[in-house]
DNA sequence: CTTCCACGGGAACACTGGGGTG
DNA sequence: CACCCCAGTGTTCCCGTGGAAG
């Protein structure tokens, strides 16, 4: 009987120790904006200096913020915006900061509608002509005397589809009687203004701010600050934070990565019922994050892209060559479509899908000229094969292809 | 210099999901 | 209700082009 009893105690001990890692893990999520941003006081000051004129009732210059992912652009913009609204309230000046992520809201229509809705105008999701949305937006903004600041995060995503949106926004002030509008653009592409209408370019880039990547030491400081709040006392081995920082510094100083890494390390340690987070947990976390990312991306791919990816995968698994060409992939793709009764897209479209997969970092596609034998993309997988494969076969529409074999030689391929 | 193949830009088109109007 | 208008998205069609092997 004593044996069972000690087993019982063991259960509770385990449960207790698994509670012992986190104090508040929300602090490690990148949606969390801390009250203090280490190593960014310079940028905060510059941005505040530009925006302060809003408190005097003037129109602040438009600002463009550049910097790679995870360099604190969004955090700084949100932080300064919050502070500005606060001071505005104190002084009785109407300052409104609207944060928009252009990856989600990526067309002129949606952008204008979104802003209009912030000022309590009802604009339907779709259906109206754009000029009508524009005047709704303008009227709602101009109803009162105020300064509105629109933060356009990932503004480069907007340039492709809706650069007239930027044009209209940047000259809306000439149509306004009481209110004023200024823009803050956030981009991680330094060269995105090249594709911009020159008029927009000059008005948007009145002020420019560059966020350099963090180095390993700075990332360490950031992690320290957050870890303080996130973890219980002394559950982190000494190595953990420097290691996370080092990994993230390799990825061009991405603080977001570092925070994810730290959080996932903690979660892994917790699940393993360890009492402290150690180096091996960090290494496991590193691997897990990459696989999770790939699986998530693959899972949410449209069916056609999944088919394309699968054909590349199978050809690569055949493994007589490391890389393959678009033509080969297309043949296999066509066969598979026929097999499962899916619509067959043109090769033109498939090149686009392959490029998209390349952008997502799932494939590697390089254009090479093979002289006499023309020009093609050399494609190879750049993620773990097995996890990708199982993620693909989660889709019931691809299930019938589990036993599908790619033809190994060019001869067989010709016989389709 | 020619030749070859797919790349990739651009126009055109079809379709969707919504709104307003008579 | 039927009908047309609109933005947005995904696709096809057409075609000029790059660049090393032959």
Brief summary of the model shown:
Helix content is 52%, strand content 12%. The protein is of the alpha/beta class.
What is the CA–CA distance across the termini?
A: 70 Å
* SSE class: alpha/beta
Number of strands: 8
The biggest beta sheet is recorded as: 5 strands, parallel
Order of adjacent strands in the largest pleated sheet = 2-3-4-1-5
Helix proportion range: 40-55%
SS strand fraction: 5-15%
Commentary on this structure:
By secondary structure, this protein is an alpha/beta fold. It has three domains: 41-211, P-loop containing nucleotide triphosphate hydrolases (Rossmann fold, 3-Layer(aba) Sandwich), CATH 3.40.50; 214-297, Orthogonal Bundle (Helicase, Ruva Protein, domain 3); 301-415, Orthogonal Bundle (Arc Repressor Mutant, subunit A), CATH 1.10.10.10. The protein contains 16 helices and eight strands. The strands form two sheets. A five-stranded parallel sheet has the order 2-3-4-1-5, sandwiched between helices. The chain has a three-stranded antiparallel sheet with strand order 6-8-7. Helix 6 links the parallel strand 3 and strand 4. Helix 8 packs across helix 9 (240-250) and helix 10 (255-271) packs across helix 11. The longest helix has 21 residues, at 279-299. The termini are far apart. Residues 409-416 have low confidence and may be disordered. The structure holds a DNA duplex (22 and 22 nucleotides).
């Amino acid at each position: 009987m004593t044996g069972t009893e000690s087993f019982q105690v063991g259960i509770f001990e385990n449960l207790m120790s698994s509670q012992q890692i986190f104090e508040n893990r929300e602090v490690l999520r990148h949606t969390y904006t801390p009250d203090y941003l280490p190593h960014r006081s310079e940028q905060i000051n510059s941005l505040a200096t530009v925006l302060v004129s809003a408190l005097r009732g003037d129109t602040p210059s438009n600002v463009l913020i550049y910097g790679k992912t995870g360099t604190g652009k969004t955090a700084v913009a949100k932080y300064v915006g919050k502070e500005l609204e606060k001071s505005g309230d104190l002084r009785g000046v109407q300052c409104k900061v609207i944060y928009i992520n252009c990856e989600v809201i990526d067309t002129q229509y949606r952008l204008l509608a979104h802003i209009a809705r912030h000022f309590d105008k009802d604009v339907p999701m779709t259906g109206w002509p754009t000029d009508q949305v524009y005047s709704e937006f303008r009227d709602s903004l101009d109803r009162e005397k105020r300064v509105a600041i629109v933060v356009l995060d990932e503004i480069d995503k907007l340039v492709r589809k809706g650069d007239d949106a930027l044009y209209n926004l940047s000259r809306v002030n000439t149509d306004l009687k009481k209110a004023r509008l200024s823009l803050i653009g956030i981009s991680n592409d330094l060269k995105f203004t090249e594709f911009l209408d020159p008029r927009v370019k000059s008005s948007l880039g009145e002020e420019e701010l560059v966020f350099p990547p963090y180095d390993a030491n700075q990332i360490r400081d950031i992690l320290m600050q957050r870890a303080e709040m996130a973890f219980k006392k002394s559950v982190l081995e000494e190595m953990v934070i420097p290691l996370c920082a080092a990994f993230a510094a390799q990825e061009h100083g991405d603080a977001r990565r570092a925070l994810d890494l730290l959080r996932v390390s903690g979660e892994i340690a917790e699940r393993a019922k360890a009492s402290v987070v150690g180096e091996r947990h960090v290494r496991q976390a590193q691997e897990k994050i990459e696989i999770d990312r790939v699986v998530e991306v693959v899972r949410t791919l449209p069916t056609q892209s999944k088919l394309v990816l699968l054909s590349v995968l199978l050809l690569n698994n055949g493994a007589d060559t490391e890389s393959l060409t678009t033509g080969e992939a297309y043949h296999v793709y066509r066969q598979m479509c026929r097999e499962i009764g899916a619509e067959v897209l043109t090769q033109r479209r498939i090149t686009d899908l392959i490029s998209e997969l390349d952008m997502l970092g799932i494939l590697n596609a390089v254009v090479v000229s093979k002289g006499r034998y023309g020009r093609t993309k050399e494609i190879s997988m750049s993620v773990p094969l097995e996890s990708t494969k199982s993620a693909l076969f989660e889709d019931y529409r691809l299930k019938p292809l589990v036993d599908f074999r790619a033809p190994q030689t060019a001869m067989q391929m010709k016989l389709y």
